[in-house]
From TrEMBL:
Name of the protein this chain belongs to: Integral membrane protein
Annotated spans, Disordered: 1-46
UniProt keyword annotations, A-Z: Membrane, Transmembrane, Transmembrane helix
Low complexity: compositionally biased ranges: 10-21
Keyword match Transmembrane: yes
UniProt keyword Repressor, yes or no: no
Top-level taxon of the source organism: Bacteria
Transmembrane residue ranges: 102-122, 134-154, 160-183, 204-222, 234-253, 296-318, 355-373
Amino acid sequence: MSAHDDASRPGPSGPTSGTGPVEPDGPAGPGVVEQPGPEPDPALPDIAGCERVFRRNGLPLLVEGHSLDRDVFGRSAPFLLVVLLAELTGAVRSGWPAWANALALLGGAAIVAGAYAGLNVLRARPWSTLPQSVGVPELAFFVLVPALLPLVFGGQWGDALLTVVGNLVLLAVVRVVVGYGVLSSLWWGLARVTDELGAALLRLVRLLPLLLVFSLVLFYNAEVWQVFDRTHGVADLVLGAFFALLVVLFVGLRSPAEAREALAETAARLPGHERATRFSRGQTANLATMIASSQLLQVLVVSLGMGVFFMALGTLTVTPEVMALWDVDGGTWRQTVSLAGGGGVGGADLVVTQTLLRVSVAIATFTGLYYAISVQVDAVYREEFVDGIETQLADVVRTRSRYLTLLDSREVEPPVAR
């Protein structure tokens, strides 16, 4: 091979000539070629993917720049719009004819549209501007304007006040449910209950003997049936709400300490992720809400199971003859169930009564409260539950470490030359 052939052969950096290799100009300077950097791993999530992981795990407050008007009420805007449209029925009156109610609905829609156009004008916007975010002005509009309809169409001050209070309560619920990712937490908790159904049943079996004794003694007590046979329906609702509040208090008071404990254990297990385990007060509250939601879901599953069990047990064993012996009427309604052949059990039909439903719901509520208290002091259950939370939290912390790194790199990224 000749020297001329060697000089004219392309090299690894490009063609060469007799005067030596000539490198093309690169961004770093003339004659310098930058080596391409490592390609990003497509398996790792980007910023948006990390934020989806946070929301899916019920921790939306880990998203940097999380705001009420965009991430809470803004995401709930379609739901709030549906509620606002439903509240147009506040202009309808039961004593009016159909044509008058139709005109009232049109008038109510005109009042709402006119009030929103006026709000835009007051804010120096074109009257037809759609909301860019859901802030204080939009929330005040949602609370107050629908309350005008009962006042304008019938002068119903009580309905107007009820509308204001109801909308305020609804916004508070949206603030908690969406702002703290309660639905995502419940979904994770349901998946956890499904995946660990065997372990959950074993934990329940440990508590089952005392639980059944406690429940059966109450269920086959004539005085309990007489009480719920003669109480008003409102009293049942108040009693159920009271015990549900007790369950929430027992679980909620323990959750902040569990959140701090889980964060500390996760930081110890992941020494390279100290920054990602430093949660603000709001983020720690978000974690506590996620823990409480999953525990409350377990209590709900146990209560529902016990309620169905006692409904079936009462239908089979508490017959009309037993209720007559206990001086129990059965409530305002009853349903007779005839099995195949029409003979029922032992030649008698099965009867489901309102009192049976009330007693079963009451026993299920008592059982849920007992279960909630028991698991708070059961060391084995606490260890298993906290381990599961720490496993989930470790995945979230790793994702947050990458998320914070991506945010940092985006902030220091130099502008692209044009």
